[in-house]
Specification:
alpha+beta, Arc Repressor Mutant, subunit A, 15 helices, about 20% strand, binds adenosine-5'-diphosphate, binds magnesium ion, binds zinc ion
């Protein structure tokens, strides 16, 4: 039997506001436990929440970026459940009418574009954190309420994702949008973005979706993909053996790479939702919405197409370069200042990104700034140095912080296009390789590449390969 996997994602993103959603406590990450708390976020009786306007603005920005309809009137509800790190005994969230609905984003996998629907985006507060101190995890659970009340948006997708790869592309796109908008710090390791996955499989020809399981709180793209992959296979096995998939919440075991049953899924009624009596209806006026729309920055898809056209670079290069905003900013700086933007795009993607990945730094921390790289690249296009020499200059720039021109000067890396100098090297190479010369003259013309390589080597990468090729052919063909 063939099955089609069906996946829906619920993504929680922490909004990068300075204060919490309903009080003025700081949202700073890593502060001493329980130092960012007050009677409101600790859930003391008699206190009143006040909505953080910036958090609402950020939610609207994401809704606009994902083509959602903004509800002009939405509201908050209490979602009741008992948990040690939720002191109020309920979470304030948006239930019946969320701030935004009915959007979509576009993803690309293996060169194919696809639309994935966004069901809704709503605002809610985060819970605190239970800590299990090392060595004492058996006896002690401590609780840190700093995260209580930190603003989140939950972005719920339609069940329209069909593979682990598409799920990662979708999650990546959401992360990219959040970062371009500047509304989320986007550090997965600090829990800024968390994924809940819903997975089911549909037998070929079935008219309706299969029973789903839910896996909560994944915090890396890797575990997202692995958990979906595992769950698809597990469900297929269950069904093939004549069993039934149970609607439940499962736990992802990071070490064993399996999912385990955790609890049967809560039903809506378990949460006893009711309207939050301490907060008014959330009203978004036309004026405010216009203001927010008009200040929205250029988003990744638009920037990718623009960069592709404006600088005449391949689509692949443009999509890699726009994967993050700082990288796109860096590239545009180089491209604007140098003569050859295709070369600029290739250098940023290969040489610059290699160093950034190796050193685990961000492009903003990268020491060779855009202007300095542009100067180096122009030396190639002006015929001053060869591509090989340029790589050597680039490493020296990284180590010393000196300019490209200065390093070329100091190391004497000027490209040799002086015919006489190259002719001497050619003669030397030919004299040293009589066997290869015979093979070439016997008709094996491909061996020319070998000779060019030898000339380049002897010249320390400084010979102009075009001149070398011309002279070699001249000499060898006679
Ligand atoms: P809940 O509130 O219980 O999590 P929702 O109806 O809000 O339930 O759905 C949550 C997520 O589950 C959505 O992202 C949705 O796309 C996804 N989903 C719903 N049905 C299925 C299904 N049969 N298979 C996979 N995903 C599903
Ligand atoms: Mg859910
Ligand atoms: Zn507080």
């Amino acid at each position: 039997m063939n099955y089609t996997p069906v996946v829906g994602l619920e993504i929680h993103a922490q909004l990068a506001t300075e204060s919490k959603l309903f009080c003025s406590c700081s949202t700073e990450f890593g502060a001493p436990p329980n130092s960012n708390t007050c009677p409101i976020c600790l859930g003391m009786p008699g206190v009143l929440p006040v909505v953080n306007k910036k958090a609402v603005k950020y939610a609207i920005m994401m809704a606009l970026a994902t083509n959602c309809r903004i509800n002009r009137r939405s509201g908050f509800s209490r979602k009741n459940y008992f948990y040690p790190d939720l002191p109020k005994g309920y979470q304030i969230t948006q239930y019946e009418v969320p701030i935004a609905e009915d959007g979509y984003i576009e993803i690309e996998t293996d060169g194919k574009r696809k639309r994935v629907g966004i069901t809704r985006i709503h605002l809610e507060e985060d819970a605190g954190k239970s800590l299990h101190p090392e060595g004492k995890a058996e006896e002690v659970t401590s609780v840190d309420f700093n995260r209580c009340g930190v603003p989140l948006i939950e972005i719920v997708s339609e069940p329209e994702i069909s593979s682990p790869k598409e799920a990662v592309a979708y999650a990546n796109k959401i992360k990219q949008l959040l970062e371009y908008l500047g509304i989320c710090r986007g550090v997965l390791a600090e829990g800024n973005i968390r994924f809940d996955i819903n997975v089911s499989v549909m037998p070929e020809g079935a008219g309706s979706l299969g029973v789903r399981t839910e896996i909560k709180n994944l915090n890396s793209f890797h575990s997202l993909a692995k958990a979906i992959e595992y769950e698809i296979e597990r469900q297929i096995k269950v069904l093939d053996n004549g069993g039934r998939v149970v609607h439940e919440t499962r736990l992802w075991d990071e070490k064993k790479l399996i999912t385990r049953s955790m609890r049967t899924k809560e039903e809506i009624s378990d949460y006893r939702y009711f309207p939050e009596p301490d907060l008014l209806t959330l009203v978004v006026t036309d004026k405010w919405l216009d203001e927010i729309s008009s200040t929205l920055p250029e988003l990744p898809d638009a920037r990718c197409s623009r960069i592709e056209k404006q600088y005449g670079i391949p689509h692949y290069n443009a999509s890699v370069l726009t994967s993050t905003k700082p990288l796109a900013d860096y590239f545009e700086q180089v491209a604007k200042l140098c003569k050859n933007s295709v070369r600029a795009s290739n250098w940023v993607i290969t040489e610059v990104m290699k160093v950034i990945n190796e050193r685990k730094i961000t492009v903003d921390e990268f020491s060779v700034r855009g202007k300095a790289l542009a100067e180096l690249l122009d030396l190639i296009d002006d015929g001053v140095i060869s591509q090989t020499a340029a790589k050597e200059v680039f490493s020296a720039m990284l180590e010393t912080g000196k300019s490209a021109a200065r390093i070329v000067e100091e190391k004497g890396l000027f490209r040799v296009s002086d015919e006489q100098a190259i002719r001497e090297i050619v003669d030397k190479v030919i004299a040293e390789h009589p066997k290869e010369v015979k093979r070439y003259q016997g008709g094996k013309k491909q061996i020319l590449g070998f000779f060019i390589g030898q000339v380049m080597k002897l010249s320390g990468g400084k010979a102009d390969p075009k001149v070398a090729q011309r002279i070699l052919q001249e000499v060898l063909d006679n």
